[in-house]
Write a structure and sequence with these properties.
Layout: E1 8-12, E2 18-26, E3 30-38, E4 41-42, E5 47-51, E6 57-62
Antiparallel strand pairs: 1-2, 1-6, 2-3, 3-4, 3-5
């Protein structure tokens, strides 16, 4: 089954979930995916091997990718570094006013209804 390495596939494995990744190796008994995702989330290991008996369906989702990078993750939140590798941005703090907040505006009546004042 050589010749399938590098193709992007989506594999349904019933109770084990749905896996996506690039084919790293394939033979009659198993399928190994590199840069795998399981149920839409990055898999914690760089490869996963699935038994042929666990595979319910397989779909090719992309052509061979010779120079694919490892999966990348975007970190967000406090202390995350910028893409340029510089230091984290400082949090901007709003100055709080000592005055009470302005009252909420009164809702306007709908054009389809008649307002009756008593």
């Amino acid at each position: 089954m050589s010749g399938w390495e590098g193709y992007g596939v989506s594999v349904r494995c019933g109770a084990l979930g749905c896996y996506q990744g690039a084919v790293a190796a394939a033979d009659g008994g198993s399928l190994t995916l590199s840069r795998p995702f399981r149920n839409g989330f990055p898999y914690p290991k760089p490869t996963v091997t699935l038994k042929a008996s666990d595979i319910e369906s397989l779909e090719i989702i992309s052509e061979r990718d010779e120079a694919a990078p490892a999966h990348s993750m975007l970190l967000a939140g406090r202390g995350a570094r910028r893409a340029g590798g510089g230091p984290p941005r400082r949090a901007r703090h709003r100055r709080e006013s000592l005055q009470p907040p302005a009252p909420a505006p009164r809702p306007r009546p709908s054009r389809n209804h008649t307002l009756i004042l008593v």
